[in-house]
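Shipment paperwork, digital attachment
Item: protein structure file
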Amino acid sequence: MVVKIIVYFIFLLMPEVDMSDEIKQHRDLPSQEFQVALRELFAKQNYHQFGQECEKLNNESLVKTVNDLYLLSFYSHDDDISDFYHKCFLSIENPEKSMVTDAFNIAINKRDIYTAKKLKMKYQQYQLPNPPDIIQKEIDDKKKKVLSINKEKHNVFFQDEFEFSDGAEIVVFFDPKCHFSNNLMKSVESNQYFKKNFSNYSTWIQVPNASLSYDSLLAWKLKHPSFKVVSAANRTDFKAFDLRAIPVIYFMEDGKVMKEIRGWPQEGRGEELEQAIKKTFKEN
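Attachment content:
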């Protein structure tokens, strides 16, 4: 009881912060600087002082803390913050369905299937969807990893190693549920020049922190069979890329970014895309 009171007073002594406003102040920073700013914001809140004692906060204080941690986790894509968030979330008494759904989605987006299944089991009354299974493969930690699917194995993802190609290639970061990603694919498939080059040289990678849905990725793959499609296996391997606005098309040479096209409005950016392809593949 004494420990709980001490922890609660630590919470009260912390400066009142509107986490949403704090995050907005940093949104215009370049991607990696934005991530650093969120880590600093996380540290500034001194969560470590009571983080190991989440269950000792009163429920009202705990809910506010968890909501702040959710925002930091959602925007930072930081696994440590997400782990912290889930630990505190599980200490809440009778959380609302929306909070449970948020916690479940963060786990799925983090590819933390263990936590997602734990949440589904604990909150059966909310009928959360079945988390997919991931078949792990022994891969060097220094290597990038992606997830692929097989239509014969429902709701199962297979982990594979990913390496950028030697020579020229196109890498598209997208999400099947993203309207602008679908606009891009329509433009590519409706233009024979684009379709040929993307079919031969592109890999489409579902962005880290997007919902890992077997059904949506399979539907995309069946609808667009000419293109190689995978999902990022975690939120750390592609941190060097600014993926806050998708789709992003990267034109690569020996693993180095030579050109990028960010976003795809309804009217498309066909001329810019054609010039980037010609330059990347040394066409006259």
